[in-house]
Amino acid sequence: MFQIQRVATEVIGQVLAGRNLTEVLSETLQHDTELTPQQRGGIRDLCYGTLRHYGTLDAVLKQMMTRPPEDPRVRLVLLVALYQLQHTAAAPYAIVDHAVRQVARWLPPAKGMANAILRRFQRERRSLLEQAGNDPASRYALPGWWVNQLRQSYPERWKQIAEAGLLHPPMGLRVNLRQQTLAAYQQRLADEGLSATAVGEAGLLLQTPVPVSRLPGFSEGAVSVQDLGAQQAALLLDARDGMRVLDACAAPGGKTGHLLERHRLQLTALDVDASRLQRVQDNLDRLGERATLLCGDASQPSAWWDGQPFDRILLDVPCSASGVVRRNPDIKLHRRPADIEQFARQQAALLDAIWPCLAVGGELLYATCSIFRAENQQQVVAFLERQPHAMLIPLGDDVATLQLLPDAQQDGFFYARLRKLA
């Protein structure tokens, strides 16, 4: 545990300094080759968990710490230890002992203070957490402006949405129906001691997340890891065999693969990042599917488009990722209100640029993993005002657009289907 705490503290320190969690964690785990698989898993849990609950843990620590320690790493190791004490099954005495030993290595005079803080939390955790919970931003570990956005957009559901952001993200699977039925793969999981609930056409929700190495047939393309909400994209696009389809902003390729599993398409996968485009190719290779991959900017079609219109376009735009923040908890630490405005401008530019690539009578599915209206409903309304030959196709009997909110089963996504009339 000692080494796990130390490495997690170092990773979290870099994330709080502005770096991306996924990148830092990947670099760290690749560099330290002596770590066991169990230690690597433990480090991931501490990093993601501490950052997911960072706002609450920080508010609790401030109640007990009169002034910041001279070495900022002391504060970080205490935050990690508080997360362990509150959210893990590790023995409290071991958590405290390892944290105090770590503090003693970095700042010996702070050893007693660290021990006193962690012991106090064990005695007074209820009152400390209640005090922190008086402020919604601390209670839900979200920036204050984020809480205000939720309140304004979802006055009756904002608390449930905020609470969902503190949950461990669910593990959704997409069964490759070209290889077997949903029920058949569910039985394969059961044979391996893995329980899963069937959801929708090809979805399974695992009762307990596991490494992909535990999933039977994963390397042969029998199944993919994909959130249940993300699986809606391939269904809502309404593509059909033989169609010419563009998956713009395609990386890492989950939706690309799903489209090809459902239909025989002339599919082009476009992404501006060559390294991320390689991930699309890797996914297609695993699934045994083929597509045309292009490295290019969706906002600059003149640089890559051959002039032949597409029957369908999936435009999964860059966004705030506010709907998947529990999977990427560093987002809520780094995101600022101005970022939402910037994303909205970028999304509008992408919509306007890619629209001429769509055939008359064709359809474009606009998608985000955001729950902010400025990136979703407001974006679509503004586009329809700019583009008189676009029509919104309802996605249900009473649903013009589809806003999925994060819950125990899925993350947050937004979808809108637009048809080109002329």
Architecture blueprint of SSEs:
Elements: H1 2-16, H2 21-31, H3 37-52, H4 54-64, H5 72-87, H6 92-106, H7 111-133, H8 136-139, H9 144-153, H10 158-164, E1 172-175, H11 182-191, E2 196-199, E3 203-206, E4 223-225, H12 232-236, E5 244-248, H13 254-262, E6 266-271, H14 274-287, E7 292-295, E8 310-316, H15 331-334, H16 337-354, E9 358-368, H17 377-386, E10 390-393, E11 402-404, E12 413-420
Parallel strand pairs: 5-6, 5-8, 6-7, 8-9
Antiparallel strand pairs: 1-3, 1-4, 2-3, 9-12, 10-12, 11-12
Helix pairs in contact: 1-2, 1-3, 1-5, 3-5, 4-5, 4-7, 5-6, 5-7, 6-7, 9-10, 13-14
The best one-word shape is: globular
Helix share bin: 40-55%
Task: Provide the low-confidence segments as ranges.
Answer: none
Mean pLDDT reading = 96
Name the helix and strand elements from N-terminus to C-terminus, one letter apiece. HHHHHHHHHHEHEEEHEHEHEEHHEHEEE
Distance between the termini: 63 Å
Outline the biggest β-sheet: 8 strands, mixed
